[in-house]
Design brief:
Strand content: 15-25%
Radius of gyration: 29 Å
Largest sheet: 6 strands, mixed
Low-confidence stretches: none
Strand order of the largest sheet: 9-14-13-12-10-11
Bound molecules: beta-D-glucopyranose
Distance between the termini: 57 Å
Number of helices: 23
Oligomer: single chain
Helix content: 25-40%
């Protein structure tokens, strides 16, 4: 619709600069004389937070469906549901005249303390990427744009505007970027939102390597990079770095700075033009979807309930659930009446309606006599009398359902959690009720893991209901009464103690930096490597039925990395009720040149099975399922050899292991240099060919020099070979210089010329 090059050629410098900055907190500049309309973007990520007046940052938003937050939706392991959630959100965006939804959030849960973890999917980049792809596809299939956020390494709230995430290249590539990469390559989000923080000392909003080299050039991102709201410090630097649109606006001083920078020659106008082109393409896309109308609030509420029910995770069940034959039940806990269904901050939705757990229980539990006790106050204050009251109603019933919600003072955007604990009052309440009533079920509403050691052994069942969205109450009732068979599985590990968590010693950073010292080892990668016990492992969740895995097989025992391989397994529902099971496939590299996690999730599939039914699931594994990022080659590398394929019901419940052989088709460039060690020269095929003969001579020479017998490897109380292997060749030769035709440096330079094909 827009003739981009013509419009660009007719825009003044001032218009271009202003066009790349918001006109209001939520909208872009209209250039009416050229027929370019304004577009509106609003949060995200689990509902539409459309400000009633886009000219104000904090105006109350219009009613929209509050879907379950990402912790819950990811625990569905059901991309098809996320796709439907995306479609529904897009319908609401269209009705509410929104062009772009600010989400999904795919930052990794580096620590369970992260204040915004409820908005993020997982501790695993593969799972987060799959969920993001599905949600984006759903939203964009209706002609509404998305903004995947916050790029990159925005994994905490502490000092979120300033802190520098100090993260090495391999960790960035293997842990913190892949969810963005998968989404950008496969779902093509219209926009990517850069983070507030610095990454290795440079603001994400000025990070040329992240925004331009990796995102735009390497991954081929053609959309708009938008700044997080207020992330831009220096507009000129951010344009050069790759931020096309600064939000929010207006920002007159920044616009002037851009104009002046172009006039003075400090900023090439071509850089600005490139951002304007991207912006025009974005507006053009948005214009193609007419906005307005209504949305089906009832249908979306029902969908929100379905997603919530599938994302809730049954963590413990001694058989009490689903409830049967109960005549008298006690409902305890404030959140049974005051549902805690979403988190604080920019994602906070004004819901179309909110279901209340106690009401939903009463609707489904006909004939049951209900009693209620509040149990705890809205804050963290102590009230022994509330506990006494709760114990009384619990004792008088056949079952006690305790609803526990984490106080919002403990988790929200803007601040991190200080601990993984419930309030003292809540712990004391659970303990006292469980003592009085053995049939106690705990229903948790929270956005991230909590510790449970003080009380879990005393209760009969635990349901993790998350920040479950506006229809979550009905989903809880569906699960407790067995109308829905729970099938959620954890998208993050629940640790036993805060001190066990991967980032514990490097959190939340100090003096302006947070060092990602645990490297690749976050989440289950860390607990696996240390063989640490956890409360509930990644991928775990109970069902009311049982599943058996059989007949595991692969499409090929040996295969080339570029061809990949498909894993098959038969899954049978061996219980009495229908249910859904998520089969998880992890890959273990038996031998690698660099350290690798014990296993990594590389595929999964969710199947629905009637009692007695068997289905075969097929899970394809591609090049990247076996590759790791090599920080010296600066590329993804596969190594020929054996890999174990672990097929499991969780990361800790591996049912079958198959071994396959991969043939790497990579031809790696030679990276030997003046500092390369003997070991490195011998490990490189070209290095070995030119250096091998010299190595034999060196060994003999060295032995003589040290006064030993050349056949012997043992000299001056050490292993001669072991001693030499990790010395640079140039240093070993340095000790033998008298017998060399030229100085050691020249000899190595000559070898290098040969391996690099220059001699
Ligand atoms: C948040 C973003 C959000 C934006 C607009 C920022 O503070 O970090 O996630 O999209 O505000 O509300």
């Amino acid at each position: 619709m827009l003739d981009i090059e013509t419009i660009l050629s007719q825009m003044t410098l001032e218009e271009k600069a202003a066009f790349c900055t918001g006109a209001t907190p939520w909208s872009t500049l209209a250039i009416e004389r050229l027929g370019v309309p304004s577009i509106i973007m609003t949060d995200g990520p689990h509902g539409v937070r459309r400000a009633s007046d886009p000219n104000t940052l904090t105006a109350k938003s219009l009613p929209a469906t509050c879907f379950p937050t990402a912790s819950c939706s990811a625990s569905t392991w059901n991309p098809a549901l996320l796709q439907r959630m995306g479609e529904a959100m897009a319908e609401e965006a269209i009705a509410l005249k929104v062009d772009i939804l600010l989400g999904p959030g795919v930052n990794m849960k580096r620590s369970p303390l992260g204040g915004r973890n409820f908005e993020y999917f997982s501790e695993d980049p593969y799972l987060a990427g799959e969920m993001a792809v599905a949600l984006i596809n759903g939203i964009q299939s209706k002609g509404v744009g998305t903004s995947i956020k916050h790029y990159a390494a925005n994994n905490q709230e502490f000092e979120r505007f300033t802190i520098s995430a100090e993260v090495d290249e391999r960790t960035l590539r293997e842990i913190y970027l892949p969810a963005f990469e998968a989404a950008v390559k496969r779902a093509k989000p219209w926009t990517v939102m850069c983070a507030y923080n610095k990454v290795n000392g440079t603001f994400a909003s000025e990070h040329h390597q992240l925004l331009t080299e990796i995102l735009k050039e390497e991954w081929g991102f053609e959309g708009v990079v938008v700044s997080d709201w207020g992330a831009v410090r220096d507009r000129v630097k951010s344009l050069v770095g790759g931020v096309d649109l600064e939000m929010p606006g207006p920002k007159h001083a920044h616009v002037r700075a851009v104009v002046e920078a172009v006039k003075s020659g400090q900023l090439s106008e071509e850089v600005l033009n490139e951002s304007v082109r991207r912006m025009l393409r974005l507006v053009d896309k948005a214009m193609r979807t007419p906005k307005g109308g209504a949305f089906d609030a009832d249908a979306h509420h029902a969908l929100a309930r379905q997603i919530a029910a599938e994302g809730m995770v049954l963590l413990k069940n001694n058989g009490i659930l689903p409830l049967k034959g109960v005549k008298k039940a006690a409902v305890i806990g404030r959140s049974a009446r005051e549902p805690y269904f979403q988190g604080g901050g920019s994602s906070n939705i004004n819901p179309t309606r909110v279901d209340v757990p106690l009401d939903e229980l009463q609707k489904q539990g006909e004939g049951i006599q209900w009693a209620y006790a509040e149990g705890y106050a809205a804050d963290e204050s102590l009230h022994p009398e509330m506990i006494d009251e709760a114990v009384d109603v619990a004792r008088d019933a056949e079952v006690a359902l305790i609803f526990i919600a984490l106080p919002p003072s403990k988790e929200s955007e803007g601040y991190d959690r200080q601990d993984l604990d419930l309030s003292r009052q809540q712990v004391a309440l659970i303990q006292a009720v469980a003592k009085a009533q053995p049939n106690t079920v705990v229903i948790l509403n929270n956005g991230a893991p909590i510790v449970m050691s003080e009380w879990i052994d005393g209760v009969a069942a635990v349901l993790e209901a998350w920040m479950m969205g506006q229809a979550g109450a009905g989903a809880i009732a569906d699960i407790l009464f067995g109308k829905v068979n729970p099938s959620g599985k954890l998208a993050e590990t629940f640790p036993l103690r805060l001190a066990d968590t991967p980032a514990y010693l490097n959190w939340p950073g100090e003096a302006g930096k947070v060092r990602y010292g645990e490297g690749l080892y976050i989440g289950y990668r860390y607990y696996d490597a240390r063989e640490d016990a956890v409360l509930f492992p990644f991928g775990f969740g109970l069902s009311y039925t049982t599943f058996e895995y059989s007949n595991p097989r692969v499409s090929a025992q040996s295969f080339r990395d570029v061809d990949g391989v498909t894993v098959y397994v038969d899954v049978t529902n061996t219980g009495k009720v229908a249910g859904k099971e998520t089969v998880q496939v992890y890959v273990h590299d038996r031998q690698a040149s660099l350290s690798r996690p014990v296993k990594e999730l590389k595929g999964f599939a969710k199947v629905e099975l009637q009692p007695g039914e068997t289905k075969t699931v097929a899970i394809p594994l591609d090049f990247r399922a076996f590759a790791y990022y090599h920080p010296e080659y600066h590329q993804w590398v596969t190594e020929s050899g054996d890999f174990d394929i672990l097929i499991g019901a969780s990361s800790a419940d591996i049912r079958h292991t198959l071994t396959v052989t991969l043939e790497s088709t990579l031809e790696l460039p030679c990276i030997l240099d003046m500092e390369s060690t003997v070991r490195e020269w011998l490990a490189d095929p070209r290095g070995k060919a030119v250096f091998g003969p010299m190595f034999d001579q060196m060994r003999t020479q060295m032995a003589r020099m040290m006064g030993g017998d050349e056949a012997s490897n043992e000299l001056i109380g050490m292993d001669m070979m072991g001693f030499m292997m990790d010395m640079p060749v140039v240093s070993v030769l340095g000790f033998q210089e008298a017998s060399l035709p030229a100085p050691a440096e020249m000899v190595v330079a000559d070898l290098l010329a040969k391996v690099h094909g220059k001699a």
